[in-house]
Amino acid sequence: MASTSDIKKGLVIHFNNDLYSIIEFMHVKPGKGAAFVRTKLKSLTTGKVLDNTFPSGAKFDTARVERRKYQYLYKDDSGYNFMNMETFEQIALQEEMLTNPHFLQDGAEVEMLIHAETEQVLTCELPPNVVLEVTYTEPGLKGDTATNAMKPATVTGGAEVMVPLFINEGDKIKIDTSSGSYMERAK
Known about the structure:
By secondary structure, the chain is mostly beta strands. It folds into 3 domains: 2-62, Roll (SH3 type barrels); 65-125, CATH 2.40.50.140; 129-185, CATH 2.40.50.140. The chain has strands spanning 2-3, 12-15, 18-28, 36-43, 49-55, 59-62, 65-76, 79-84, 90-93, 109-115, 121-125, 129-137, 150-155, 160-164, 172-176, 181-185. The chain has a 6-stranded antiparallel β-sheet with strand order 1-6-2-3-4-5, with no helix packed on it. Strands 9-8-7-10-11 form a 5-stranded antiparallel β-sheet, with no helix packed on it. It starts with a strand and ends with a strand.
């Protein structure tokens, strides 16, 4: 059992017959009335995000989870295949379990959140950013840089990303895997 004083980002709790991860929280002490904790919870089974307020001192059950490093191997009919970096055992995940799977590269290291009691994979987190090569993009027009104009570009793996006009085919770019947006040109 844990209480509201134990709340921190990333904590996994049992709530409403489901497992939720705490995305963000804020302890609030209004001038009048009792203190409370305002949280944003993400369901690890459905992916839905909900806002919830816990009164100060409320108790809830925490789930025992482990973070394990896996390496992406390949994709086939059974899904995306990963190998545990310590035990070398392989598992396959369906596309729904991954956020932005088109940014995965062979050999990429990912971190999986696994329920310790059931050995069930809860989430698969890609690295925060990846460097990919632009395979196709239209040439940018000269002198059209007064605004933050963007154009579509296809990168290795087939994903389409909006990039600035100065990016050309063959350039390597850094992409934020959570939002799928262009960050900067890589060297």
